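#struct-help
A.M.: can someone run this one for me? Single chain, 171 residues.
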Amino acid sequence: MKNWKLTGNPELRPILEYCLRAGAADRLILALRQKNLEGDFLYPATLPATERLFGARILERRKGRRWPGTVSHRFDCLLVVVRFDEELVTPMVEAGPKLFDWVGSPKSGLPEDLCLYRAGSTWPVLVSVTHEQDAWIFAEEEPSSLEVSACESETEELFIPRADVGFIESE
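D.P.: on it. Structure tokens below:
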């Protein structure tokens, strides 16, 4: 699998539409960072904002230290897995129209590190580390509808937990 680095601060809508169309994504992982071992959130508004935006589409809430693109060395994060489809595109774009708007902060209340994948697939379609303003598309062919550059790093250099654990690991 090849990875393509998204350039600039891309618009969210074309990314979500590409992931639906080309990658058949049906799952979304979101990270809500914690600030201590007690589990207090770094940005407390992210949990209620996430629950309001995704509601009944939330399939799972898991604590984890590793998810696509990220290894948290200090604290667990709450990782929320959401059922993703075309009906979520507009509400997500209205909440944060650019990919890197999706970074935890007191102002936005949005979760971060969006990862889109198809349940049962070996590779995710989108991996992002939004606080670092990094994001990659995983595809065999260059996604011509998105602004990307060929990625110099090997796919294995980007941390991607195993698919059989839902791309989330706790240790």
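A.M.: thanks! The chain has a mean pLDDT of 92.
D.P.: also worth noting: The chain has three helices and ten strands.
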